[in-house]
Amino acid sequence: MEHAPNNPAAGFCRDCLEYQGQPSRRCRKCGSPRIVRHDELYDLTVAHIDCDAFYAAVEKRDNPELADKPLIIGGGRRGVVSTACYLARIKGVRSAMPMFKALEACPEAVVVKPDMEKYSRVGRDVRSMMEELTPLVQPISIDEAFLDLSGTQTLHRNPPARTLAALARRIENEVGITVSVGLSYCKFLAKVASDLEKPRGFSVIGRAEAIDFLRERPVTTIWGVGKAFEATLKKDGVTTIGQLQTMEESDLMRRYGLIGQRLFHLSRGQDSRQVHTRDSAKSVSSETTFNHDYADAETLVPILRSLSEKVSRRLKKNDMAGQTVVLKLKSADFRIRTRNRRLDDPTCLADRIFRTGLSLLSPELDGTKYRLIGIGVSDLTQSDLADPPDLIDEAAQRRAIAERAIDRIHNRFGDNAVETGYTFGKGRNARPQRDNDATD
């Protein structure tokens, strides 16, 4: 076991993990310039890890011919950019940009359609490595998570900072992609830190510097401040976090309600949110954007069924259930319709999710053309509280028994081994054309 470091300002090398005896430009052991140092380096325990250009990185890993080429993940006539590698980003390509604009900005880019099953597998590999370090891992999406490494120093014989650097190195060597790490004393600043030096970044924000660090940054740095709210703040003459730091909490709450309280505390680096495990998720959903606009039940219903099955599989895999079913629609003119219904008891069954979603969808089939449909559940709980026997609706009980039998076949032979009548024979029309799964 190495002696505990006594000079955090000297730091350690991110490539060989060697502690540095004194501040230097290069590692005293391997000569690498990638040295991380900070006065609070060995005291901080909250981290945010974000995979760098995740989808693109996985595709480049699997196809070396793409390594030096600008790469866009997305596609389809009506498609948008899911993500882009950093070579494409330099040319102005951004996530959620319409594909035609992305190709105008970077006509030499290679476009690859997303393979969500593959990305999910890689994401699970990375997450399992995180969970080897601490039980306090809170996934935010397929490619990022918060970690709390409090109390792990004795177990790993390393301070959290060095443990995280070792993890980043392991992911790069074993998984073949890179990550950026943000380390701080709270979730807000850990997330901010992870964005500072992408790709392959390792940034630290300590307590002593937090207020000064935030002062000159734009208000959009604060979690929850999007474009609409940014415009509201700008009308009030507020564009930087430093301006928020001069305002009283009561004034901010009077102007903006509860979000004003959040502005007050986060602008001062105050964030009491804890890192929770995946059980703290509030909703599970799946949605798809079409290459064409559709208004007919013949097209929309099979896709709704397929999405319901995806949501159900994820709930069952995580021993979760939800009591509120939420339907989401986006019309051709980009107007969003959201409909929800609370059930008598929680469910993880695709049949109940789908039938509830179908009852919500039917009134919306009024000739409006839709470019997106999604289904999800919220008000999550443990699955042992879900789907009690229905003594009144015997048909529902028979469908539940049949679904569990289908689940056993899927577990043995794969998700496409058995299909229901809603999707069987529908081919691609029953499959999401560009899907997006979320656990929030």
From TrEMBL:
<dbReference type="GO" id="GO:0005829">
    <property type="term" value="C:cytosol"/>
</dbReference>
<keyword id="KW-0234">DNA repair</keyword>
<dbReference type="InterPro" id="IPR036775">
    <property type="entry name" value="DNA_pol_Y-fam_lit_finger_sf"/>
</dbReference>
<keyword id="KW-0238">DNA-binding</keyword>
<keyword id="KW-0515">Mutator protein</keyword>
<feature type="binding site">
    <location>
        <position position="50"/>
    </location>
    <ligand>
        <name>Mg(2+)</name>
    </ligand>
</feature>
<keyword id="KW-0227">DNA damage</keyword>
<dbReference type="Pfam" id="PF21999">
    <property type="entry name" value="IMS_HHH_1"/>
</dbReference>
<keyword id="KW-0479">Metal-binding</keyword>
<dbReference type="GO" id="GO:0006261">
    <property type="term" value="P:DNA-templated DNA replication"/>
</dbReference>
<keyword id="KW-0239">DNA-directed DNA polymerase</keyword>
<feature type="site" description="Substrate discrimination">
    <location>
        <position position="55"/>
    </location>
</feature>
<comment type="subunit">
    <text>Monomer.</text>
</comment>
<dbReference type="GO" id="GO:0003684">
    <property type="term" value="F:damaged DNA binding"/>
</dbReference>
<dbReference type="InterPro" id="IPR050116">
    <property type="entry name" value="DNA_polymerase-Y"/>
</dbReference>
<dbReference type="GO" id="GO:0042276">
    <property type="term" value="P:error-prone translesion synthesis"/>
</dbReference>
<dbReference type="Pfam" id="PF00817">
    <property type="entry name" value="IMS"/>
</dbReference>
<dbReference type="InterPro" id="IPR043502">
    <property type="entry name" value="DNA/RNA_pol_sf"/>
</dbReference>
<comment type="similarity">
    <text>Belongs to the DNA polymerase type-Y family.</text>
</comment>
<keyword id="KW-0548">Nucleotidyltransferase</keyword>
<dbReference type="GO" id="GO:0003887">
    <property type="term" value="F:DNA-directed DNA polymerase activity"/>
</dbReference>
<protein>
    <recommendedName>
        <fullName>DNA polymerase IV</fullName>
        <ecNumber>2.7.7.7</ecNumber>
    </recommendedName>
</protein>
<dbReference type="InterPro" id="IPR017961">
    <property type="entry name" value="DNA_pol_Y-fam_little_finger"/>
</dbReference>
<dbReference type="GO" id="GO:0006281">
    <property type="term" value="P:DNA repair"/>
</dbReference>
<dbReference type="GO" id="GO:0009432">
    <property type="term" value="P:SOS response"/>
</dbReference>
<dbReference type="InterPro" id="IPR022880">
    <property type="entry name" value="DNApol_IV"/>
</dbReference>
<keyword id="KW-0460">Magnesium</keyword>
<feature type="domain" description="UmuC">
    <location>
        <begin position="46"/>
        <end position="226"/>
    </location>
</feature>
<keyword id="KW-0963">Cytoplasm</keyword>
<keyword id="KW-0808">Transferase</keyword>
<keyword id="KW-0235">DNA replication</keyword>
<dbReference type="InterPro" id="IPR043128">
    <property type="entry name" value="Rev_trsase/Diguanyl_cyclase"/>
</dbReference>
<dbReference type="InterPro" id="IPR001126">
    <property type="entry name" value="UmuC"/>
</dbReference>
<dbReference type="InterPro" id="IPR053848">
    <property type="entry name" value="IMS_HHH_1"/>
</dbReference>
<comment type="function">
    <text>Poorly processive, error-prone DNA polymerase involved in untargeted mutagenesis. Copies undamaged DNA at stalled replication forks, which arise in vivo from mismatched or misaligned primer ends. These misaligned primers can be extended by PolIV. Exhibits no 3'-5' exonuclease (proofreading) activity. May be involved in translesional synthesis, in conjunction with the beta clamp from PolIII.</text>
</comment>
<feature type="binding site">
    <location>
        <position position="143"/>
    </location>
    <ligand>
        <name>Mg(2+)</name>
    </ligand>
</feature>
<dbReference type="Pfam" id="PF11799">
    <property type="entry name" value="IMS_C"/>
</dbReference>
<feature type="active site">
    <location>
        <position position="144"/>
    </location>
</feature>
<dbReference type="GO" id="GO:0000287">
    <property type="term" value="F:magnesium ion binding"/>
</dbReference>
